[in-house]
Amino acid sequence: MLPTDADRALLAGRLALTDGPTPILIRDGSVFDMTSVAPTVSHWLETDAPGSLEGRKLMPLDELLAAPERLLAPIDLQVVKAAGVTFAVSAVERVIEERARGDSTQAAAIRERLEQRIGGAIRSVVPGSEDAARLKSALIEDGMWSQYLEVAIGPDAEIFTKAAVLSTVGWGAEIGVRSDSSWNNPEPEVVLVADSHGRAKGATLGNDVNLRDFEGRSALLLSKAKDNNASCAIGPFIRLFDDGFTMDQVRQAQVELVVEGTDNFRLEGESSMAEISRDPEELLRQAQSEHHFPDGFVLFLGTLFAPTQDRDEPGRGFTHRSGDTVRISTPSLGALVNRVTTSRDAPAWRFGIRELMHNLAGRGLLNGAY
Questions:
Q1: Domain limits at 138?
Q2: Which of 9, 117, 202, 306 lies in disulfide reach of 240, CB 3.0 to 4.6 Å?
Q3: What is the Rg, in whole angstroms, of the alpha carbon atoms belonging to the chain?
Q4: One domain, residues 184 and 302
Q5: Which of 85, 93, 120 has the alpha carbon at shortest distance from 317?
């Protein structure tokens, strides 16, 4: 669960205590209750140096690790945004979904043709550059242009809203895919956490569950493919930026994925942030755009990982089964682990903003000048 250098890390999270969700700071082997500083993680991250603030010592870290089921997603009021098609491989896979109309049986032949034509070229161009424009013209002439290639190499990134505020699930929770999806996969990603001014305060891990059949049928089904009950996992903690953990560590992160099924199926993959097409700071800028997010926002940075390993019959590729365990990890951020179920069968999301405000008011945590 923890970073390999946890003894030097400043970790922000949320814990389900008897009286309600509580922001916590992990530092020097101890867990601190930060409600004396701020009632929510959103409030807390508005401060200039959130990791330097003092809270009330709650417990030794070992006590929390012995009962990790109390962990919640480490964000609360932040808008959940995501960047899509930020890696060349993911761009090719999105084109495959589009051309196959969400039919996994057609994907292999289309993949081979696209890789031969654009696999190397798309990796070498800078999005929005003159070289990218020339590649676009050539692909249009070839009849191979796609809306997904537009966001992969064009000037504008794909930025979308992934999930509703407070709807994310944390470490150990069930993660949901739609019960009517027959072609889907996990998306292991690094997630930036920003304050209301768009300044990155730290990073965490996330799973942006992808329904390849839905989005492949039509890009207009993106919202139906992405925003479902329990379909967004974040955690286990936000590692706050400091002298020992900076954006450069995010840029160089190696994100590993392991999926293990109850059918003894095992899938492994890796996503190297060094291969991202747009710099994380640029994606953050495009997510902020002309918007203002008064409670801050988080941004999924996209993934290089696109599973093509056959699970059942040859040519059908990978898709989830209920009971799969998904582990996403990188040394600097720890590991996020969730078990797959359907969005229909996952626990219903009931604790929304209204309930949170009622809870915080009842605990006397909204009386300060925040």
A1: 88-153
A2: 202
A3: 21
A4: yes
A5: 93
